[in-house]
Amino acid sequence: MRVSRCVLLTVCYVFLFVSPAHASYVMPYPSYMPGHVLYTPRTIVDRIGEWWNFGEIGRAKYHNRLSDRYMVEAKTLFEYGQYKLAVSALKKSDLNFAQSLLYIREVEQRHKDNGELKAHVKEASKKHNEIIISLLSLLPKKTIWEEEHEEPETIEIAFLLRQSQIMRSYADTQ
């Protein structure tokens, strides 16, 4: 009886008086990568998801989540040297980030945002910029990508990353 009472008091103390750790902005864990069996179905589900999320606020959050997912995908692919796939993921991230900004603008014009949505996107842009800055220091400025049975292609990695950084910096100033 005495032991169970001590355990109960300890549990109450932990839940009531110990404050939980606060993380700033957390990016999602990398999902399925290109080449995985479930990657194509996942992208189809993502496209369907836009119709599933109604209203400007829902779509802004949805596109922000997709932007995060594709940014993590791009980062992982860049780190593994899959530059062509990484550039594709980076462009998808940029597109979704731009769409989330457009929906946020609509939300602001209709006076629906209490500041939380805009603050969330600012945090996302800061985190994305951190990733981009780390990639800029890690990766070559440009590379020549050679696919089998195709002409070599020059990929301007630094230019594309700076373009993404500028877009996210714009969101950070708004």
Fraction of residues in helices? over 70%
Beta-strand portion reads under 5%
Note the run of SSEs as H and E: HHHHHEEH
- What is the radius of gyration computed over CA atoms, rounded to a whole number of angstroms? 21 Å
**What does the main sheet amount to?**
2 strands, antiparallel
- The end-to-end distance, rounded to whole angstroms, is 59 Å
Task: Determine the structural class based on helices, strands and strand pairing.
Answer: mainly alpha
| Poorly predicted regions | none
Mean pLDDT: 87
The largest sheet has its strands arranged as 1-2
Strands, total number: 2
Total domain count: 1
User: What's the helix count?
Assistant: 6
Shape designation: globular
Describe what this molecule looks like in 3D.
The structure is a single chain. A hairpin with a 7-residue loop joins strand 1 and strand 2 (153-155). It is built from six helices and two strands, in the order H-H-H-H-H-E-E-H. The longest helix is centred in the middle third of the chain and has 27 residues, at 83-109. The radius of gyration is 21 Å and the shape is globular. It is mostly helical and 174 residues long. It has a two-stranded antiparallel sheet.
